[in-house]
Each structure stands twice: as structure tokens, then as C-alpha cells.
Amino acid sequence: xxxxxxxxxxxxxxxxxxxxxxxxxxxxxxxxxxxxxxxxxxxxxxxxxxxxxxxxxxxxxxxxxxxxxxxxxxxxxxxxxxxxxxxxxxxxxxxxxxxxxxxxxxxxxxxxxxxxxxxxxxxxxxxxxxxxxxxxxxxxxxxxxxxxxxxxxxxxxxxxxxxxxxxxxxxxxxxxxxxxxxxxxxxxxxxxxxxxxxxxxxxxxxxxxxxxxxxxxxxxxxxxxxxxxxxxxxxxxxxxxxxxxxxxxxxxxxxxxxxxxxxxxxxxxxxxxxxxxxxxxxxxxxxxxxxxxxxxxxxxxxxxxxxxxxxxxxxxxxxxxxxxxxxxxxxxxxxxxxxxxxxxxxxxxxxxxxxxxxxxxxxxxxxxxxxxxxxxxxxxxxxxxxxxxxxxxxxxxxxxxxxxxxxxxxxxxxxxxxxxxxxxxxxxxxxxxxxxxxxxxxxxxxxxxxxxxxxxxxxxxxx
Length: 463
Ligand code: NAD
Ligand code: UGA
Known about the structure:
The protein is of the alpha/beta class. Helices cover 46% and strands 14% of the residues. It starts with 5 loop residues before the first strand and ends with a strand.
């Protein structure tokens, strides 16, 4: 079998950047090009100051330092990368559609489709095209059609599904020690050959028994289903946290007991303000939409409920804050959808803020990693989606203050909503903070309970 020497990845985001960095590090004999339309993002990937990388992940900058411009290259020249590569990963975003058929439910495939058109337009020899993005089941069929319709004569494409399972904040570790690598290909001789080429790359650092090969549809669906199952666990424990509050049971204790059953296990049972992130919600909506397309309405309703509980949890948290607020000011600690990332897509903080702003609350926000610009953009995008005019949006955003230090944010109100589980929040001098005034904290991550045990001036509420 001819060995793969040049690969590229279209999409230099949270998946494309870290995944290709690890491949480049583990396979020094392969040239890896990561390309993107976004010029600022590529400049940031090429910045000599590694603290400016667009994706913040523990361990990532060390790898970039070693391999960048040796066998890992970031560029905006997408056509050149396609032409030079034997294997092309598509790792572009697949958000929920915001207009047209399937608005608010279906995955928007326009970026993936435009990649396929681009590949077909410029490729002068056969290519293996790899679906790295999370896609609805049977997307490969659609891609095949686009590729063959637009291809130059005698140029053929093999399509493989290789969904990514990394989680943000632990991406590098997840890539180094994946629970499994999933590769879906078709059963023809060509298909098998293409799958083998990808398997050969991963075997450089992943044990063979962890590399699972399946048919394309199983691979596409397994990714959506894995995320749905993980999110379902969070919604299950979050639904029980409401019952704990009503009955006097303690969510952490209940969660610990449930998790000690080996059949269930302890992970992903941490009650929270609700799951966020760019993937769980969109992937479940995508699954629901698919089920409806196959007239499986009961199945669709079942999975939709996972989202409904998540929305319920965000409003339950916000309601608690509103009940405690006397002077129309609230501090929110954390904006990212989880700790150790600068990503805030679909963060619970956005929806909590919406509810508070709609109730005329002025909010004071601090997050250690998410920029002021990003926080304002998150809110602006949400209000635009809800069809507010520019004037109305500007007025709403007047109620939003963002600070560079936690003290400034905390000093401006007597009620704190903790949204993200940043470690530094546990380390604050709460004793000193409580001496300035009586405060209430609604802990959306259940991380401060023990820390605040003997502090009298703080009213503490957990989920
Ligand atoms: P992202 O938004 O961080 O990155 C996507 C990049 O693709 C952007 O930089 C965008 O500019 C670029 N892009 C879009 N269209 C392009 C085109 N036609 N040509 C060149 N570049 C283009 O997205 P992400 O978080 O990396 O997610 C990518 C995919 O991986 C999604 O399908 C997502 O569901 C899936 N996924 C994400 C994660 C995660 O933790 N973020 C984990 C597993 C899977
Ligand atoms: C998730 C999956 O964990 C990855 O396997 C998957 O590859 C990825 O989605 C994807 O497809 O994009 P990610 O969204 O990065 O990864 O982060 P998670 O660690 O799964 O957390 C998601 C949300 O759930 C966060 O808001 C987190 O705080 C919340 N969460 C997680 C809880 O509220 N409780 C828990 O017990 C665990």
C-alpha cells in the first residue's frame, strides 16, 4: 500500500487545530496542512506568541512549538492544500440551521457542502475525503454526489467517516489516549484500502484494539448517539436535582450513590446549571430532526425531552437568582461553557443572562478566559436570532458590564450566580468578600459548598 505523505484539514477550529497538531507530532513523516477561510484565525495559529493561539487547551502550545513549520502548517491557501494532499479531513462547523427548512433543528451543512465543492473543483488526482465534522447519518451519500458531480474527469473520491470524540478542556489528553477511534468506510476494495490508510495513521499512537471500523452509517450515527447519551445523563441528574431541592435530598450524595453502581459509573453525573457547548444541543436537535424525517415521532419526542430538561435547569437557576435579587444587580462568575476553555458557544451563561436582562437586571460578569468582545457577541447573536431590532439590542446590552477581575464584578452586587466551574473560584478569599457585605451565591456547579462551610455572611444555594 502506498503510504500517505500529505494530508490537510479544512477547518482550523477546536477540532481541526488540536487533532492535526497531534497527528503531526505522532507522524513526523507526514506533512500536515491546516487551512481555513478565516484569516485572523490562521494568523493567530501562526503567531510567534503562543498565548495568542485561537484555541486554548492544556498542552496544545507545547505541541505547536515543536511541530509548527516543521511538518504542521497553517494557511489560508485552501486550494493549494487540497491539490497537494492525498487525504483531506473536513472539520468545519456544522451548527444548527438558523433559517429555512429545519430552522432551529437540522444541522446546517452549508460549510461541509462548500468544502466538498471546493475539493471537487480543484482536485487533479484521487483523494480520500474524511468526515471529521459531526454530521447527520447518510451525509456521506450527499457528499459523494456533490464530489462526483463537480469532479474533473478521471478523478475519484473515497469518503470515510471518522468522527471526533475529544472534549474541550481535555482535548490533547483525549487525543493522546482516546477511548476509541471510529472509522466508517464502505465495503468495496477501494473503500477498505482507504480505511486502512487512515488506520495506519492512528496506529502510530493508538492501540489497534481501540480502533473500531464500521460501515459509514454506523459511524455517523454512533457519534450523534454518543453525544445524546452523554447529554441524557446530565439531564437525568439535573431533573433529579429539582426533586432534591423539593425534598431535602442532596444532589451530590444522590449522584455519588447512583455512580457507585458499576453498570452506571460515576462520570457525567455532575448536576449543573445545564450543559452547554457547541455540540450537545445541536447534535441532539439534529438527531430529533432525523427521527422526525423517518417518522419516528416517539423516538424524536424522547430525545427532545433531554433538551427541554436542559432549558428547564437554566431557567430554574435563573429563577432562584431573581428571587434573591433585591437591587436589580447580579454578578455572574464564569461565561465559558466549562472550565479550561475560552469557548462559550451555547454556554448556559448566555441564556441565564437573557432571562436576567429581560427582568431588568444589570449583570456584572467575570470570566478568566472569555473576552469582553466574545461575551457581547454571544448576547448580540442571541437577541438577533430572537428578532430584536438593533436599537432594542443596544438597549439590552447597556445592562451588561464585563470586568477584568473577579473583585470588580463581585463588588457590584449582592447576589452571585456561579455558572462555570473554574478552579480559581474555589480559591477566592470568600471570608474577606463576605466581610464587605451579606451576599447570596447560587452555585450552578456545586463546587463551593465545602469551601463556604463556616462563613456566616454568605447565603449559599446549590443545585
Ligand atoms: P469551529 O467553529 O471551532 O471551527 C470550524 C472552522 O471551520 C472555522 O474556523 C471556520 O472558519 C472554518 N470553515 C468553515 N467553512 C469553511 C470552508 N468552507 N473552508 C475553510 N474553512 C471553513 O468548530 P469545531 O468546534 O472545531 O467543530 C468542528 C466540527 O467538529 C463540528 O461538526 C463539531 O460538531 C465537531 N466536533 C466538535 C468538538 C468540539 O469539542 N468542539 C468535538 C467533536 C466534534
Ligand atoms: C462533548 C463530549 O464530551 C465529547 O466526547 C464530544 O466529542 C464533544 O462534545 C463534541 O462532539 O463536540 P464538550 O462539549 O467539549 O464535549 O464538553 P463536555 O465535557 O462533554 O461538557 C459539555 C457540557 O456538559 C459542559 O457545559 C459541562 O459543564 C456539562 N457537564 C458535563 C455537566 O453539566 N455535568 C457533567 O457531569 C458533565
